[in-house]
Amino acid sequence: VSHVVVRSSVAPNEADVSALARQGVSTVHEAQGRRGLMAAYMRPIYPGRRVAGRAVTVSSHPGDNLMLHAAVEQVRPGDILVVTTRSPSTDGMLGELLATSLRAHGAIGVVLDAGVRDVAELTEMDFPVWARAVSAQGTVKVTPGSVNIPVVAAGAYVRPGDVIVADDDGVVVVPLETATAVAAAGVEREANEAGKRTQLEAGVLGLDLYHLRQLLADLGVTYMDAEGQ
Amino acid sequence: VSHVVVRSSVAPNEADVSALARQGVSTVHEAQGRRGLMAAYMRPIYPGRRVAGRAVTVSSHPGDNLMLHAAVEQVRPGDILVVTTRSPSTDGMLGELLATSLRAHGAIGVVLDAGVRDVAELTEMDFPVWARAVSAQGTVKVTPGSVNIPVVAAGAYVRPGDVIVADDDGVVVVPLETATAVAAAGVEREANEAGKRTQLEAGVLGLDLYHLRQLLADLGVTYMDAEGQ
Amino acid sequence: VSHVVVRSSVAPNEADVSALARQGVSTVHEAQGRRGLMAAYMRPIYPGRRVAGRAVTVSSHPGDNLMLHAAVEQVRPGDILVVTTRSPSTDGMLGELLATSLRAHGAIGVVLDAGVRDVAELTEMDFPVWARAVSAQGTVKVTPGSVNIPVVAAGAYVRPGDVIVADDDGVVVVPLETATAVAAAGVEREANEAGKRTQLEAGVLGLDLYHLRQLLADLGVTYMDAEGQ
Amino acid sequence: VSHVVVRSSVAPNEADVSALARQGVSTVHEAQGRRGLMAAYMRPIYPGRRVAGRAVTVSSHPGDNLMLHAAVEQVRPGDILVVTTRSPSTDGMLGELLATSLRAHGAIGVVLDAGVRDVAELTEMDFPVWARAVSAQGTVKVTPGSVNIPVVAAGAYVRPGDVIVADDDGVVVVPLETATAVAAAGVEREANEAGKRTQLEAGVLGLDLYHLRQLLADLGVTYMDAEGQ
Amino acid sequence: VSHVVVRSSVAPNEADVSALARQGVSTVHEAQGRRGLMAAYMRPIYPGRRVAGRAVTVSSHPGDNLMLHAAVEQVRPGDILVVTTRSPSTDGMLGELLATSLRAHGAIGVVLDAGVRDVAELTEMDFPVWARAVSAQGTVKVTPGSVNIPVVAAGAYVRPGDVIVADDDGVVVVPLETATAVAAAGVEREANEAGKRTQLEAGVLGLDLYHLRQLLADLGVTYMDAEGQ
Amino acid sequence: VSHVVVRSSVAPNEADVSALARQGVSTVHEAQGRRGLMAAYMRPIYPGRRVAGRAVTVSSHPGDNLMLHAAVEQVRPGDILVVTTRSPSTDGMLGELLATSLRAHGAIGVVLDAGVRDVAELTEMDFPVWARAVSAQGTVKVTPGSVNIPVVAAGAYVRPGDVIVADDDGVVVVPLETATAVAAAGVEREANEAGKRTQLEAGVLGLDLYHLRQLLADLGVTYMDAEGQ
After folding, report:
1. Would the CB atoms of B73 and A205 count as touching at under 8 Å?
2. Its pTM surpasses 0.95
3. What would the pLDDT profile of D136-163 be if each residue is shown by its tens digit?
4. Contact of chains B and E by CB distance (3 or more pairs under 8 angstroms)
5. Of F167, F223, F229, which is closest to E9 when you measure between CB atoms?
């Protein structure tokens, strides 16, 4: 087992990251062909935040946050830390002090396939965290791990430099190579949705807007009146 | 397997629905003899809403929201859409666009034994949804299903025309035939509770209010002082 | 099976309780050597409250809240009720009426390894409850149980008179005998953290603050640049 | 809340029940259009049994098996007891003694949306039980419930007299009215599958047997060689 | 945080342990008033074993089995190791090698509120383990813990020297002080059950055997014939 | 969204695969530095099988097994099919017929991050499947997906051509590039374990074999006698 901390300057385009942050998780997930979504157990510790940033990844031993400290040094402004443990854990790997340190180095949020603590303080700081659990259980700093290697976090494959988008709908990963294309596809999707929204608000049915009536008939769906009416 | 969309004009009495909406889930559940409660995993996407309305039911293939579009056409003002999948799924079957369409046709909320997305937008719209999960995972529109047939949603049996009551405590189903009786029983219960509340606020013990001291004795519960006191 | 209601005047020191309430769950859990934390499934019904108080314990049959009424009589101002069921249950054992009664006798909160209901009303009352589930499912009052005996609640061992601390991070139990020492250790910890916070805010790395660079080297963690950079 | 024990002589045709028992859960579920399957958490306590029988239903308070005793009197040879609790419970509602009593009255198995105990003894007796949990936790006999009313068990709607089919794949409910048609459809399905099995054993591809190649093309699925090969 | 290994020669009576092993989990749990049962997620890795023995307890850091090695030295013939982690973990803390070592020192089984691995080898050795998960994920040996201190394992309070009983129904803890009384109560219960079994086999109904008909009437349970029969 | 079926002849060395199959999941997982383990919810449908083979991967829509049929054509003797769904699903995607087809083309097992059915028949065939659930719920054949692309299955990253090892301990993935090295490391590990086993059987303590006594002392673990002994 070899453990490494990789220094990486690979980064997505800032304009793309801004566009993805505005679009949000559901739009981005659609725009990239429904790939890269983390499991639904990843929830924000408080509602209402929508962020996007470059992934700095951490692979940790469960119950040990040593490598999160190593990761802080690799963080640049606008980054999002993505932490996974080598086996399932809900221990509170990150609290107010680590968040303070991360913010001091420019991190704008954390995605943690493990537990978080100091939730009241983090909410007060307005430092958004997406996690699988809230737990006061602290960690030790004794076992090695890696920073900036590819990881699987909450079922999604994340490489350092990929774009992380997170909001009330969850967390999605956009591969670095496709960030520009996805951001563009998202813009197109937003425009398309705006048009549909106007029609749906006016009462047009999705059955007509999406031309579904023939499909229903082809699938053998029949219409009938309720008995006795 | 035959799939149908049933046009139904069966509807509960408006005054009953209003009463049930005011009473809320816990009172209504008691008033109808503790039947019809959906599983506790059904949670509101934001707190503070209390609604009641006629059920329009949908039975869908997992990962496919075709039949939700068919259902919109069957919605009338004041209705609540109740969606279930034929096998467990957390996919986000409903988002802002479908909610916009549902609202345009008068729906006042959705109960979804599956996933929901666009949570920030739905909160902004103040369109309440009760769901088992939040997930950005979108769906396809290719498999048939049914609208307005009896379904089991989150462990409760729901027929089109039944009354759905939903609030921060969850979701309960009131059969159409008993809605008037349940609403009346709920009114009685509220009055009864108001009286008890006053006494309990004044410090009267439930042991006395409910005459439980003799029962405790009959059950062999004994009182003792802590050792060494 | 013998069932008892124990009258107990054993109580922690008020100043200790105040200190523990201010420190909160994560600090207290650390200060007492990471013992006594309840499982992460115990969540507050609304965010933002931090309380500490003497435990009054209840061991109940699932689906039966008879013994909660017996417990109210044993409550004194500042107490926190800790309720566990003899087998897993999510039934709503406590609602607005019982909370009204508990408050009338001075209770400041409830920790419930079961379900709670009337969440909207409890939020309105600002009466904090930590529970494993929200459920409108009511209970009966027919089976015996015990008050103020040692219990295991959400994986933690609680004796009457122990101090319960609860906030957005969860619930922790401080044994009565060690409350003074833990409160003192918590004060020390807060001071220590304040110093660290200042340094971390200034950009000092945890790697340096905690002297971790040598440890990383000893553990065989190596630094490298990303390929192709 | 009214509680009843319904004496019912409604019963499916014996030949249909035999056919359904031979076909097993997966075939029957297909044959009736993929309806009526219980949740996947319902597992047999030992592998290898396949049964079908008339449902005698029980609605119980959690942690109370009083109504199971009332149900035994309603059991006739070949019946299967279907037990559900009014809120979720894993308590061991049935053990060796109740199974002995059920067998003495002709029951051939139990489907229990709750817990079972005495698993070693039940296995020794070869009395099959499908349950959501194994738990030594016993129950009381103090709260009323109903026998032979419609229930929702593990997500499926079951009425007394319906046919229950259970095996290693789970549990499925066949409505009484459709048992004959479903059994016939199952026979047809078995014949159809036998033909397919022969072809598939011979190496014919499902792509060809089910004519899926054109569909793949229509859906835009493209074939390519791995890079560098 | 102080960590200790306690050398303890406290032990239950051998005859009591033998009796408890013969009675099994469900009988023992009843005989001691339904206390001390571990959570239903604790399952045997293979069916058919029933054991009882003195508890040697271990409190470990998650993902670290250092203290299991310290515990082996404290094991005497007939003991059962009870292992818990300070926060939830499914890592495989015990495999074939540790089991070999434990058996060499006389241990007859392990109860592990964590994961186990080498299940095929352990089955081959006929060394029974009850665990919450099977996982090949290994552990480290770097963090301190304690041996032979009181622990909460799978929701049950266990002190060194208590009797552990485990079989296909799960795991129950009998406090050392009450082992003799519980064993005696179990013998009585077995005799009582034998008599009931004979009657139930002969077709006597539980309704009559337990005199429940009057209770049903008192609770308002009414008998009726199915409609239309 | 583009969907592809990739024809790939990339394959691991047969001797390596044989060695990995003999070593089993826990040894292989250790030998490759504790990477690539699937989640513990992946369980064999019957105990006692240990296999290794080349991965043929499938990415499917939930509730749709169209792409499994496309995958059969890509299977060569000795392969293991690895199936994942784009969102969580427990539907029975594979039963006896598909297994018959897979076996006819040489597949030796299936790893399914979804549900399986026909468990009795598959056991009879001795065709091993590792799955997250057993469910009779069938699937449709209407939505596109991909074969032989990289996937995340049960939390592990799998590329076509990687080696899958599966047994009673779960499922582990060995990257193609490292298969030879891992197989060699496994051989070394087996030899090392054999030596340890002999010593542990003879009663040597792990404390001495692994030189842990000094570590315990350094970590502050102290030894003491139980009170009163």
Report:
1. yes
2. yes
3. 999 999 999 999 999 999 999 999 999 9
4. no
5. F229
